[in-house]
Amino acid sequence: MKNNKPNVVLILNDDMGYSDIGCYGGEIDTPNLDRLAADGLRFSQFYNTARCSPSRASMLTGLHPHQTGVGILTYDSGPEGYAGNLNHRCVTIAQALKTSGYRTYMSGKWHVASSLTRPTDTWPLQRGFDEFYGTIIGAGSFYDPNTLTRGNENIEHEAKADPSFFYTDAISDQAVAFIDQHQQKTPDTPFFTYVAYTAPHWPLHAHEDDIARYKGRFDKGWDDLRTERLEKLVQSGLLDPAWKLTERDPSQPPWTQAEHKAWLLRCMEVYAAQIDRMDQGIGRIVESLRRNGQLENTIILFLADNGACAEDIPEGVTIDELVDKLMIARSHTRTGEPVHFGNDTNRMPGPENTYQSYGPAWANLSNTPFRLYKHWIHEGGISTPLIVHWPQGITDKGAIRHTPGYLPDIMATVLDLTGTEYPATLDGHAIAPLEGQSLVPAFTGELPARGPMFWEHEGNAAVRIGPWKLVRNYPQAWELYDLDADRTELHDIAAQHPQRVADMAAQYDAWAARCGVIPREQILELMKGQGVTRAFWEKPQT
Q: Are the CB atoms for 332 and 272 separated by under 8 Å?
């Protein structure tokens, strides 16, 4: 008998800003995502968790990242909550759905396990996925990625042997293959497919034909384009016209005064090409669902893991450390040519022998109209597009939902949609209670009012209660914003509401204690003398 439970395709991309894709105001061509949005829902105030690994851990488990063992990244930071591994007090969406009769597949970036080369109980197959193809590490060459794995077996040789290999394409093509294979072998069984792109995380790697399509697209520069993006966001109904554009990042020059414009434009063109290539792959995934007769009853969710990334490729970190310790790069191309690391304005990004990033000014554009970036809990660090597409279950096509939500809600939503019970125990381990709230009511209207939402990363922190957001740029003092009036966080009104600040800070402290958040001061003390690897990934953000 055919099982009529809906399929679920969860698509996450890496280091993309709030306003990059077309249906969120950007200049980048994303026709496939735009069609999903036009036939589904867009959320205007959905939040991630400001950083790669914590966001993945939270989204996959419905808990706060510190509760899962992934408080910062997958490099072991010592105390519980920061071990860099999913612990046994959490279950993944895949583990939960298997109890409901689902087949589970994953294609792409894992990044919630500290063991990068040896299979452990924190790898995908050991955390509920029937099949896995992707990388265990969080970043790397798109032409020759480290830790490329099928199941539990390293298959880096496959990329090395294929001159046409490109990781974004491989992620898309494998997701298509999983869907096709599922339809051939188990068509009466529902499936969950998790597709985790590394695009557009640095390095800036893209195909020349994709890059060429963006020649001239960004020539107006970041200042004019930020203004234009905000106008489009307001016109689309995603943002309130009362919310004003933040200032350009004060560390960056006006576009009219910027040097090395040809190189700067090429950086943004390559970044755009990375997202474009991902969108092409999403189009193939959607077509595979259509071809297999599964599109109508498949829920597709698309979002990003954090705000845009303003980090440059690290200076003062040796090639040996990047390649052999952090395992995020290759020292040579597949043909033996040396890779050139760092943002050298005399060398255009894109090819395999480069390893560059697009920098704060373009990241500031990507996060329009918000300020700050990945790592921070201000709106620029945690605001993500969220597109939900389900022809069989969403009739209000093209609508926008403004009620806030965040990553723990993804697990709650999937369980709600699939009629799956969240387990209290698994394999003899007590599981922490689910922290999220289902978004399913939003399919027919705005979500009901919710309780407080909390965040913490590297000491940066926030609590949001209704329109009120208390936020901290560590080690500075708490700031308070009324997001109904000022979502771009231009007017700190903490001094005008001392009691509200105190009450919200007390709620944050109680949450932090309950969820195992370790004060940043203690983390910095523990990290003293821990070496370059620790210093690079856990450096205090200024």
A: no
